[in-house]
């Protein structure tokens, strides 16, 4: 596959997938998702691969979610195309049977935070930031955000994260159980490599069964993801949605108050 938005490398039984759009803070568009689906499929099929590492290029962002310029120009049909791709990506990541480590440096917000939650383990640099931005943008984090957050951090804290859209430091994310490990930026690669080495020393079939068994309860939330994404399709293209995306692109506060008049 001709890759434009990601990098893919396999070395020493580790598949490394890098979202390579640093100028967009590694935000994803349809092409990015297509390439991520391909890469995870390659890693799943490759018997020599025991661990998958997902990261973002540069030091500013792991992933900042969906490309806002794309979303601002989208409509319900475009949203449906995007959501079909995110659905496929999350299912292959959760169902591949191989441990997936999120290597986070910088922002993991919006769909980027959902993406790191879909991974099995997350190691982050101490200068990273996490959080959801859906209502701030006129949207909702229904791609596993509203489903997994209550299970990971508790119901009340999940409501705070989703509804207030305030950033969370790496240290706080670790304290509430949103991520697994925080290290100084210059120790990030070593920490990820150490976990890869540890996982590769363990039984691959046992890890596969463990992952699928650990996913059993949350797999039952798939219906909520599907229902949520169908509802989001109808939000795209509305005046209120475009107020959020336009405000972001124009670097101004969104005026949602007018929709309550």
UniProtKB/TrEMBL annotation:
Domain of life per record: Bacteria
Signal peptide: none
CDD domains: crotonase-like
Pfam families referenced in this protein's UniProt entry, alphabetically: ECH_1
UniProt similarity note: Belongs to the enoyl-CoA hydratase/isomerase family.
Protein name: Enoyl-CoA hydratase-related protein
């Amino acid at each position: 596959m001709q890759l434009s938005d990601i990098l893919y490398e396999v070395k020493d039984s580790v598949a490394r997938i890098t979202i390579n759009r640093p100028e967009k803070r590694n935000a994803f568009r349809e092409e990015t998702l297509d390439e991520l689906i391909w890469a995870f499929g390659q890693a799943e099929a490759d018997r020599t691969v025991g661990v998958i590492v997902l990261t973002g290029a540069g030091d500013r962002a792991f992933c900042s979610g969906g490309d806002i310029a794309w979303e601002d120009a989208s409509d319900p049909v475009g949203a449906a195309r995007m959501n079909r791709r995110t659905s496929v990506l999350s299912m292959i990541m959760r169902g591949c049977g191989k441990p997936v480590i999120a290597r986070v440096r910088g922002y993991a917000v919006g769909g980027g935070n959902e993406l790191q939650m879909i991974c099995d383990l997350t190691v982050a640099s101490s200068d990273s930031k996490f959080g959801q931005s859906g209502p701030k943008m006129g949207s909702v984090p229904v791609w596993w955000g509203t489903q997994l957050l209550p299970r990971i951090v508790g119901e009340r804290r999940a409501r705070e994260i989703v509804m207030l859209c305030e950033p969370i430091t790496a240290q706080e994310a670790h304290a509430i159980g949103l991520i697994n490990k925080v290290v100084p930026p210059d120790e990030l690669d070593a920490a990820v490599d150490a976990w890869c080495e540890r996982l590769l020393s363990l039984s691959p079939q046992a890890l596969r069964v463990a992952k699928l068994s650990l996913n059993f309860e949350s797999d039952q939330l798939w219906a909520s993801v599907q229902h949520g994404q169908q509802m989001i399709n109808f939000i795209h293209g509305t005046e209120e949605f475009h107020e959020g995306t336009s405000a972001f692109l124009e670097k101004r506060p969104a005026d949602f108050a007018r929709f309550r008049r």
